[in-house]
Amino acid sequence: MSAISPPEQRIWWKAPLDKLEFIWIAIAFVWSLVMFVMMIWWHIYGNQNLANVVSKTTKEMYAAKTQAVVDKYTVRTETDKQIPVVKPPAGSDIYLIGRLWDWWPIYELEKGKTYKLHLSAMDYMHGFSLQPQNINIQVHPNYDHTVKITPTQAGTYSIVCNEYCGVGHHAMVGRIYVK
Amino acid sequence: MATTYRICPRTGLQFDTDAEKLMRWNAVAGVLALLLGGIMAVGVVLTRWPAVHLLSAETFYMVLTAHGIDMLLFWIIFFEMAVLYFASSTLLHCRLATPKMAWLGFWLMAIGSVMTNVAIFQGESSVMFTSYVPMMAKPHFYLGLILFAVGALIGCFVFLGTLVVAKAEKTYEGSIPLVTFGALTAAIIAIFTIASGAVILIPTLLWSMGFIQEIDTLIYRVVWWAMGHSSQQINVSAHVAIWYAIAAIVFGAKPMSEKVSRSAYLLYILFLQLACAHHLLADPGLSAEWKVVNTSYFMYFAVLASMIHGMTVPGAIEQAQRLKGYNKGLFEWLRKAPWGNPAFSSMFLSLIGFGFLGGISGVMMGAEQLNMLIHNTIYVPGHFHATVVIGTTLAFMGLTYFLVPVLFRREVLFPGFAKLFPYLFGLSMYIVALVMMGAGTLGVSRRHWDMAFAGSPLAYEWPGAAYLMMGLNGVFGTIAIVAGGLWILQIVFSLLFGKKLDEGELRNSPIPLTLPAPTGGHAAHPPATPGTMVLALVFLVSFILYYFVNWKYLSSLWGLA
Ligand code: HEM
Ligand SMILES: [Cu+2]
Ligand SMILES: [Cu+2]
């Protein structure tokens, strides 16, 4: 009789389709294709795609690479914790460390220039959440993830951690300056 | 196999006595988990309300872990076991295949859920329900989850066995009902889900006991979400089956087309598993091709299936209502629906909220590049409170109003509250989902104790609107919790003190289901459903607008390549 009983017509699969139901299926199908193509289209024409340039690394190796950039390009330090503010040349590789519970170091970038930002974690996973841009990327330990970033507006940006990483998670905030 | 069968005098449904008892116990265990999860929700919501900020960081993360696990796993899956037994043994008029095994499954689930809760409240397992490595919980946290999963797996096999019994003992003619087909979909997906769960949780247990050195974080996330996402598809299949069931019970509604609805379920089975990818769109190490194909369930076939169900359920109701003569204009069928019947109003609010809030937001954030906008923000809990609370939980709660007299043989006490409840809980949950999505669009993080970043030298200042929305989340979250708490009280009071209802006839053998003789000629053509079509088009337009607004937002971000 209804959806809780066996179908009345034994050969239910031969019953004709309702017209409106058919139209809706056709519309929904086309919309599904549009959404599918949209992602591919954005890979070709869009300016915001997450690169999949990744290499396996170790905590020691990644820390050493970061330290090298910090040693070379630090221009000053900030806060009581003496966090280095690093001003690398445009186009260079810059390394950001996520660890319990800070992002290290602070970078000072130039508007309109492109940098190769590397992301990796030293302990747990962390979440790179650039505010107020709202760009959110998962950061894993032992993976070095490289994303080419081009800041388009000047300002002071914060990196909030948005992957839960223990009781100090809420205090894990870093910074990027764009001049 | 000496069981007995009871014919419910109110509905004519036939219950195998063993199966009936299992349904009752599973439903009650589910409601207990809901109660615990609901108490935890108080702590979660009041801590995330910036003006209240109730708990300490440590307690907050413990309570949030318990909230996620008790709600998402224990409440929903216990209740689903009851649904599986109902959809097999009751709807097919047959005995339950192996009641002893079903009890074993139940007790494993019960022991598992207690064990995991003990681990959480001992305090050293605040790892969230996702338990991402390398953050480590105590071994009994994982062991409890594994026992629970094994119990649920046994339940799925008892369900499948019961289908075989019904077929072999010829208790029905023709094909299984659509609702049973939906439950079958849920069970098949559940088996896949639990297999993935075993692949990841067993090594994690061994790792927490020191037998394994290290688990790769990326592999963990891929396999964990093969379980975590598919388990959400169990819920979708189950609550869609309940939508069809409530439409059938309240209106006598027939599916518009058995073929279409069943094919849509088949699409779930074929494609849903791929969707674990949409939790990994912001992760390194997975190629863009892999992400695009998988996150879209290979060209959005599972989304297509949900859009089909979203139309055919109200369509079936519209047809049934029009056949009863509610034919005026586009929407008389809907206006004259029994809005005071909590089973119906819950089901309808569940359908609309699931589609408009949960569905649209889910597809938006599942688009590969758009995901960057909201990954790990509180938008994500906003989305899934629309799917798993408004969609699944509200549908289950509405069904419970039907089950109290039928399964528990008690009259529902406080019928006035029952009328009000779906609106009170459902609509406040609509707002909770919306404001969490709003705050997430502004970037506010999920699983985050303090949006003021106390103790950080570089604290970030969220826009005022974000604070406003988290405040509204507190207000309406509290209303939803109070409504949910009253619902639990109402159900418990009804079970204990409601008027006992007539049991109905007890028999030693089941009455098989028979089909009416074919009428020859063509069946009367069912009425068209223009009202549903208009609703569907409103949905489509909202969907398209919201989808492209987010692409526009994305295009304003820094360049990324
Ligand atoms: C009764 C009203 C409820 C309210 C007010 C509520 C509120 C919340 C809030 C605000 C969060 C986000 C916390 C954060 O990320 O910081 C959350 C998380 C969550 N809720 Fe609820 N919730 C409710 C009911 C439910 C129900 C019924 C379910 C499942 C069926 C559920 C499942 C979850 C899950 C799985 C999480 C994620 C936990 C995590 O991130 O690990 N909630 N809830
Ligand atoms: Cu972190
Ligand atoms: Cu964190």
Written overview of the protein:
- The complex is a heterodimer of chains A (179) and B (561).
- Chain A has 179 residues and is an alpha+beta fold.
- Chain A folds into 2 domains: 15-45; 52-178, Sandwich (Immunoglobulin-like), CATH 2.60.40.
- Helix content of chain A is 23%, strand content 37%.
- Chain A has a 7-stranded mixed beta sheet.
- The termini of chain A are far apart.
- Chain B has a domain at 341-450 and 459-501.
- Chain B has 16 helices and 4 strands.
- In chain B, strands 2-1-3 form a 3-stranded antiparallel beta sheet.
- The relative contact order of chain B is 0.11.
- The model of chain B has no long low-confidence stretch (mean pLDDT 91).
- At the A-B interface, helix 1, strand 8, strand 9, strand 10 and strand 11 of A face helix 2, helix 6, helix 7, helix 8 and helix 9 of B.
- The structure holds protoporphyrin IX containing FE and copper (II) ion (CU) (2 copies).
- Residues 98, 126, 161, 163, 165, 169, 172 of chain A line the site of one copper (II) ion.
Task: Give a short summary of the structure.
By secondary structure, chain A is α+β, with helices and mostly antiparallel strands. Chain A is 23% helix and 37% strand.
- The helix tally of chain A amounts to 2
Number of strands of chain B: 4
How many distinct domains of chain A? 2
Might you state the CATH topology name of the largest domain in chain A?
Immunoglobulin-like
Q: Note poorly predicted spans of chain A.
A: none
Radius of gyration of chain B over alpha carbons? 23 Å
Helix-and-strand structural type of chain B: mainly alpha
Secondary-structure topology with pairs:
The complex is a heterodimer of chains A (179) and B (561).
Chain A: H1 19-45, E1 53-56, H2 59-73, E2 74-78, E3 83-86, E4 93-99, E5 102-104, E6 106-109, E7 115-121, E8 126-131, E9 135-139, E10 143-150, E11 155-161, E12 173-178
Parallel strand pairs in A: 3-6, 4-7, 6-12
Antiparallel strand pairs in A: 1-10, 2-3, 4-5, 7-10, 8-9, 8-11, 11-12
Chain B: E1 5-7, E2 14-16, H1 17-48, H2 57-90, H3 99-122, H4 139-168, H5 178-208, H6 217-251, H7 258-271, H8 288-295, H9 297-323, H10 332-335, H11 342-366, H12 371-374, H13 379-407, H14 415-441, H15 464-497, E3 506-507, H16 530-555, E4 559-560
Antiparallel strand pairs in B: 1-2, 1-3
